[in-house]
Amino acid sequence: MTETTKEKIARNGLNLMKQKGYDNVTINEICKESNISKHTFYYHFDSKEGIIKHFIVDHFTITSDIVLEVLSTDNPIDQYLKIIRPRTTKLEELGVEIVRKLLNNNLHEPIKAKPTDTHKAFDLEISLIKKAQDRGEITNQEAPEKLAKTCFILMLGFAQMWATSEGKTKLTSAYLNSVQTVLGVKTRITIE
Questions:
Q1: 3-state helix, strand, coil in the chain (%, to 5)
Q2: Could you tell me the CA-to-CA distances from 61 to 100, 160, 187 in Å, in that order?
Q3: 0.85 cut: is pTM over it?
Q4: I need a surface site. Which of 18, 20, 31, 151 has the fewest CB within 10 A?
Q5: Is 60 helix (H, G, I), strand (E, B) or coil?
Q6: What is the pLDDT of residues 25-70, one digit of tens each?
Q7: Can you say how many angstroms the Cα of residue 6 is from the centroid of all Cα atoms in its chain?
């Protein structure tokens, strides 16, 4: 599959931000690296922050890859973890400085960018939690909607701790272990 202009701009912009630091990269540099005009940049993104939001929004929607991962197991807890794990691994890939910038600019805002996709993901999470509760695999019997929201808020909290500690903690494993505790997962799942 060939890379679109938007994907090329996002990839080059993110790579420059990781190399030089978010504040040290200009839109002109991103345009030069992507071999595009400023007009083309602004056609696809409204700012440098838009590049980061692009990557985050992609990981709060359900892609065909995630669907295949979910379908690879019939255990609702494993399915739920396959949906939420990419969120924190993507934050780790972005790096501490970029995540800190996102948190300062309200990480939850990009999630609102594609409400239909986000609602589909959230609805799937709720149904998997409910299914695991019905099977007795999750002992916390709070409303599945409340548990899914709590797990999302946990992710934001762990991302904040990770970013402020300069990445000294393991974001994904700490988050997933806490999710399992909050849900009351009967059998401890091995965290990759």
A1: 70, 0, 25
A2: 22, 21, 28
A3: no
A4: 20
A5: coil
A6: 999 999 999 999 999 999 999 999 888 888 777 656 666 777 788 8
A7: 19
